[in-house]
Design goal:
Blueprint: E1 15-20, E2 26-30, E3 35-37, E4 49-50, H1 51-59, H2 71-74, E5 75-77
């Protein structure tokens, strides 16, 4: 069973697999504090980015990147390999290719 990761930044939610709609780029996201990690990164506070900053960079805007957009216009929960069809990923389903949050 995949390991669950509590968000190291806020400690109030699990990190969940998401992806960008525009290109399918995968990432892990804490939906409580909007911390984001890219594939291959260890899920730790020092490596966390903020979703707003990443979205602003990807959209090429300064400040608030959302304007009249909502999350569903930009990102979506990522499907998890091996998950049952029609099943949404949950906190026990970290996306493949992400760090364990453990240092070697």
């Amino acid at each position: 069973m995949p390991t669950k990761h509590v968000c190291p930044r806020c400690g109030q939610d699990w990190v969940h697999p998401y992806r960008f709609l525009a290109d399918g780029a995968a990432f892990l996201l804490c939906t409580e504090c909007d911390s984001l990690w890219w594939p291959g990164e260890v899920v730790e506070t020092a490596r966390a980015k903020f979703l707003d900053d990443v979205v602003a960079e990807r959209r090429g805007v300064q400040g608030n990147p959302w304007g009249d957009l909502v999350w569903a216009d930009v990102i979506e929960p990522a499907p998890v390999e091996g998950a049952a069809p029609g099943r949404s990923p949950g906190p026990a389903d970290p996306a493949p290719g992400f760090g364990t949050g453990q240092r070697p």
